[in-house]
Amino acid sequence: MQENEIYQKAVELVARARGKLEVCCKVGASNLEELSVAYTPGVAEPTRAVFRDKSLQYQYTSRATMLAIVTDGTAVLGLGNVGPEAAMVVMEGKGVMLKAFAGADPVPLCLNTTDVEEIVQLVKHVEPSFGFIFLEDIAAPRCFEIEERLNRELSIPVFHDDQHGTAMAICAGLTNVARLSGCTLSDKRVVISGAGASALATANLLFEFGLHDITMTDSKGVLTRERTDLNKYKKAIVERSTAPACASLAQAMEGADIFIGLSRAGLVSRDMVASMNKDPIVFALANPDPEIMPEDSLAVGARYVGTGRFDYPNCVNNLLAFPGIVKGAMQARARHITMKMKKAAVRAIAEYVPDDLLSETYLLPNPLDRNLPDTVAAAVAEAAERE
User: So where are the chain's domains?
Assistant: First the structure.
């Protein structure tokens, strides 16, 4: 299906259905007996029980599966700051994924504010209604501060998918490259194009997996210790990296082993990929059009190639990660998403590809495999329970 055709069908779909989500009742209300039990006077007894023991809310209400998708609409897809009204379209789409793959009951909350304090306080006030807070499409660096604050101040899991879902999918793909080739990832030189939410989270997760030679670029060039315009999150990457200084993305890619693109289309040329080390890994993940198309990377020697698209092999997409993370954390009644839970998810995603199927064009599972979220959820829940 051509891209223009997909866009047209998407518009027709939401217009015909009037959105993608609806609220359904689990119990009946069609006669007086059902009304008496589901509402008044019957509702009083479970209400008294929850008042005496708040933990019963997870047994007597929908909180165990209820999830809030929170956004301010400032970093939507590749469209940027489209505002909360337009962001609602995307939040409903993410809600469909969460319902279909994680079994959660999603409620989009599109906020008409970009103030960190206001967003934090609003989410804190609605916490009793939800078992999970799913942050989505909030621009960096505010998204980092919001997530940090909410993790400190809430007693339910908070997860910013734009950061961690993408990072976990990337690390799972690299884990399977190492598994297939027999290489040691910690020896590899990494170049990351982009320094937004997903790029910074990816760098931090790579550090946890033992990769330290990481060069990162943003719209102004290479992140270096000499730059005075870096926020604290970019500075932290530079301080942890062992990569030598360089002047440009092109120079950074010379002799590099891994390229991870989280920036914009067309930023990387064939010559830049050709200058990399032998059998390089090129995960060009800008959507809808990557930094360099897979066929161009392969033509000049790239051996392991991935995109964020479903129409090419090796789809490095956050759909591999977030359903299992959500399902596992909610099943375990975790209070936080920890680093051990993230690493458990990475291993579960990677190991889901059996040895006899693992290949250069099959590094990651099919994101549509309905058994994958349960496998990841089990690993995440086990890690949560151990902690």
Answer: 3-156, 162-387
312 an active-site residue? no
pLDDT in tens, the chain (387 residues): 677 888 788 888 788 888 888 888 888 888 988 888 888 898 898 899 999 999 999 999 999 999 999 999 998 877 789 999 999 999 999 999 999 999 999 999 999 999 999 999 999 999 999 999 999 999 888 999 999 999 999 999 999 988 899 999 999 999 999 999 999 999 999 999 999 989 999 999 999 999 999 999 999 999 999 999 999 999 999 999 999 989 999 999 999 999 999 998 889 999 999 999 999 999 999 987 899 999 999 999 999 999 998 889 999 999 999 999 999 999 999 999 999 999 999 999 999 999 999 999 999 999 889 999 999 999 999 999 998
Choosing from 7, 9, 20, 39, the catalytic residue is 39
* Candidates 3.30.160.20, 2.30.30.60, 3.40.50.10380, 3.30.460.10; CATH matching 3-156: 3.40.50.10380
Catalytic pick among 26, 58, 60, 94: 94
Q: Reply yes or no on whether 94 is catalytic.
A: yes
- The fold adopted by the segment(s) 162-387 is Rossmann fold (3.40.50)
Return the HEC string of the chain: CCHHHHHHHHHHHHHHHCCCCCCCCCCCCCCHHHHHHHCCCCCHHHHHHHHHCHHHHHHHCHHHCEEEEEECCCCECCCECCHHHHHHHHHHHHHHHHHHHHCCEEEEEECCCCCHHHHHHHHHHHHHHCCEEEECCCCCCHHHHHHHHHHHHCCCCEEEHHHHHHHHHHHHHHHHHHHHHCCCHHHCCEEEECCCHHHHHHHHHHHHCCCCCEEEEECCEECCCCCCCCCHHHHHHHHHCCCCCCCCHHHHHCCCCEEEECCCCCCCCHHHHHCCCCCCEEEECCCCCCCCCHHHHHHCCCCEEEECCCCCCCECCHHHCHHHHHHHHHHCCCCCCCHHHHHHHHHHHHHCCCCCCCECCECCCCCCCCCHHHHHHHHHHHHHHHC
- The answer to whether 3-156 and 162-387 have equal CATH topology is yes
